[in-house]
Amino acid sequence: MDILVTRRLTLRPPLEVDGDALFEALSNTNITRNLGTPPFPYLREHADEWVDKNRDGKNGCVYTIHRERLIGSVSVHNASIDGEAPVLGYWLDEPCWGKGYMTEATRAVIARAFRHYNTATIRSYAQVGNIGSLKVMDNLGFERSGKGSAFNAVRNEEVPIVHTTLQRSTFEQMFGSLETNEAA
Ligand SMILES: CC(C)(COP(=O)(O)OP(=O)(O)OC[C@H]1O[C@@H](n2cnc3c(N)ncnc32)[C@H](O)[C@@H]1OP(=O)(O)O)[C@@H](O)C(=O)NCCC(=O)NCCS
């Protein structure tokens, strides 16, 4: 199994046993009101469907984050349109916010994803005003690359978003060469 270990966290591909923890965390709309993909209301079966779709690395670099228990998820999915850069997404269970965990987790997954996709660029986005998420991206070297909108199921409306882009060269300048594993 593809396991990433950081200073404080363990990341691994989703497993069937994660269903209850995913359901519990993603029932919190303080989390899902900032996300683009989870359905709302979030049902227990949605957690199982997500695990099934993302297990065994079959849908790109998708990991659950663990620190004694499941505390979140980070993914870098292949772009839905050919030629577009893969897309980073993430969330963390609310009691774990503000401890630097997501900066730590995303850094490890991005290092993995640049190699996995052999890409020069990774994209992401955040809702305008999601200061914490944009700060996580700043910490990794992402730059703002435009504005747009995306549907959010909790808010039941299109919300303004900021598109961001990370160049592999910037990431390597900040964290070291991916060839020599320094950045991992
Ligand atoms: C956004 C989120 C992933 C941040 O995770 P986190 O582990 O708390 O982030 P970190 O602790 O690594 O914080 C990174 C930086 O952002 C700052 N930050 C975090 N949350 C913040 C907030 N709400 N307001 C202002 N700054 C914040 C931290 O102080 C830290 O700053 P520093 O690097 O200068 O020390 C988490 O709040 C979350 O899951 N939110 C709900 C889902 C979500 O928004 N997902 C992202 C969708 S784009």
Furnish the topology, listing elements before pairings:
Layout: E1 4-5, E2 10-12, H1 19-26, H2 29-32, H3 44-54, E3 61-67, E4 69-77, E5 87-92, H4 101-117, E6 121-127, H5 131-140, E7 143-152, E8 157-167, H6 168-175
Antiparallel strand pairs: 1-2, 2-3, 3-4, 4-5, 6-8, 7-8
Helix pairs in contact: 1-3, 4-5
The structure holds coenzyme A.
Residues 31, 34-35, 90-92, 97-103, 126, 130-133, 135-136, 139 line the site of coenzyme A.
Q: How many structural domains can be distinguished in the coordinates?
A: 1
- Unreliable parts: none
Quaternary state of this entry equals single chain
Main β-sheet, spatial strand arrangement: 1-2-3-4-5
CATH architectural name: 3-Layer(aba) Sandwich
How far apart the termini lie comes to 17 Å
Beta-strand segment tally: 8
* Global Rg: 15 Å
CATH homologous superfamily annotation: Gcn5-related N-acetyltransferase (GNAT)
Bound molecules: coenzyme A
Strand content: 25-35%
User: Which outline best applies?
Assistant: globular
Annotated CATH topology = Aminopeptidase
The pLDDT mean sits at 95
Describe this structure in words.
With 184 residues, the chain is an alpha+beta fold. It has a single domain (4-175), classed as Gcn5-related N-acetyltransferase (GNAT) (Aminopeptidase), CATH 3.40.630. The chain has six helices and eight strands, in the order E-E-H-H-H-E-E-E-H-E-H-E-E-H. It has a five-stranded antiparallel beta sheet with strand order 1-2-3-4-5, with helices on both faces. A three-stranded antiparallel beta sheet has the order 6-8-7. The longest helix has 17 residues, at 101-117. The model has no long low-confidence stretch (mean pLDDT 95). Bound molecules: coenzyme A. Residues 31, 34-35, 90-92, 97-103, 126, 130-133, 135-136, 139 line the site of coenzyme A.
